[in-house]
Amino acid sequence: MSLRPDALRRVAALACMGVIAAPLQASGGDIAYGEYLAGDCTGCHRPEGAEGIPSIAGRAPEDFTAALAAFRDGSRDNPAMRLMAERVTEEEVAALAAYFQTIEPY
Ligand code: HEC
């Protein structure tokens, strides 16, 4: 039995996708999607931080996710962040965490 050329191409394409997907999966979220979503956050969260607003750049994804969960369940009380945390799905939080981790804090 021999593979047809189109089958070979498919195998090669899958192999390439594996290589590209690996770093994304390492952090659990889709960085490009996170960057797209981050527009809702960076109006307040500047990489250098701002008066009363911490920088969230370079944050470990576990801390990031835990902070959003705490705002959502009210154990951290901040009206603006509670609103934001209630609006995002788990997949979006994972993507945001993956993206913000890649940003260098100033
Ligand atoms: C209206 C301004 C505003 C927007 C928009 C906003 N945040 Fe926040 N965020 C804050 C403030 C203020 C705090 C600090 C609250 C506190 O410590 O009680 C905070 C805290 C956080 C923290 C915890 C940081 C730490 O040091 O513990 C995370 C994580 C976070 N925000 C993520 C996000 C994400 C993700 C988005 C976009 C979906 C977002 N924020 C949008 C104002 C904002």
UniProtKB/TrEMBL annotation:
InterPro entries: Cyt_c-like_dom, Cyt_c-like_dom_sf, Cytochrome_c_Oxidase_Subunit. Keywords: Electron transport, Heme, Iron, Metal-binding, Signal, Transport. GO terms for molecular function: electron transfer activity; heme binding; metal ion binding. Residues 29-104 form the Cytochrome c domain. Residues 1-26 form the signal peptide. It holds the Pfam family Cytochrome_CBB3. Coiled coil: none annotated. This is Cytochrome c domain-containing protein. It comes from Paracoccus aestuarii.
